[in-house]
Amino acid sequence: MIEADSLRKTYGDFPAVVGSTFDVERGEIFGIVGPNGAGKTTTLKMIAGLIEPSAGSATVAGFDAEDPEMRRSLGFLPEESPLYEDMTARSYLDFFADLYDVPSETATERIEETLDRLELDHRDRRLGDVSKGMKRKVAIARSLVNDPDVLVYDEPASGLDPLTTNYVLEFVRELRDAGKTVLFSAHNLYHVESVCDRVAIMNRGEIVARGTVPEIRERYGTTEYRVFTSVPVPAFETDPAGDRHVTTVADMAAVERVREAAGEAGGEVVDIRTDEPSLEEIFLDLAAETVDGPRGAQ
Ligand SMILES: Nc1ncnc2c1ncn2[C@@H]1O[C@H](COP(=O)(O)OP(=O)(O)OP(=O)(O)O)[C@@H](O)[C@H]1O
């Protein structure tokens, strides 16, 4: 549903994005995660047809990202979404529905339904007087006025309180369940880990890892095994753990060596636990590896 092929964007001499390639399938939630300045917004804007790539191309719902026809299939939520402060949620959304030529009856029905799903109160209050969370909900509702198949959301939950954040992430899931395709960016790893089917980790303008969270864990993370034994294991660095002893090793072959050593010492293995790295730990490792990456090498 979305295809990004070697997207590149250079501002003067500065390579903001050095080659984003990924695809998002219909009905999938795909997250781009990375620190500030990684190139997430630039990538999303190239996909939304708002920035012209310096090289590479993108398609959305079969249309070239730069084809104005593509806009009919797309709902874009910018990172900052200034609203017309003197309008109410209803009048603001009506205004955008009109821009998209949505027939007024359909628009009213669609807007009310979306605002119901977002549990948005105060629909007739001036937007200048509503909370930040409500403003974000209105901006989300705006991305849906043309009932697009594809949603591109830049940091949809950034700066919101935990309750509203959960609300927004749950809503993204609902969109996927309703058959929409969602591409979104976040710098909070928890957001992508909890809702995305697949993720790409971006750093310094390039995608440094991509896949499902378990795939990324398997490929880039190091799982540790904690082997609990009934006796200290002399050949290994063993720490006391209550009335047992624990040895931390990196792979199953080492687990077997601990088992043999414990047997030789007159004891046995009583438990084995694995510690999976969090996406955050993997992310920090990958970010450290690319410190001298493409941008640094320029
Ligand atoms: N119009 C521009 N002119 C010059 N440099 C730009 C421009 N837009 C973005 N950049 C630079 O390109 C890099 C990538 O910016 P981008 O906004 O895509 O990052 P991001 O990952 O979305 O970061 P954030 O999480 O802070 O929004 C940054 O170093 C930014 O300063």
UniProtKB/TrEMBL annotation:
Q: Which Gene3D superfamilies match?
A: P-loop containing nucleotide triphosphate hydrolases
GO function term, MF aspect, one = ATP binding
Sorted keywords for this record are:
ATP-binding, Nucleotide-binding, Transport
Question: Where in this chain does the record put each ABC transporter domain?
Answer: 2-229
**Among its keywords, does the record have Transport?**
yes
Domain of life, per the record? Archaea
Transmembrane domains' residue ranges: none
The record's similarity note reads: Belongs to the ABC transporter superfamily.
Q: What is this protein called?
A: ATP-binding cassette domain-containing protein
- What is the native source organism of this protein? Haloplanus ruber
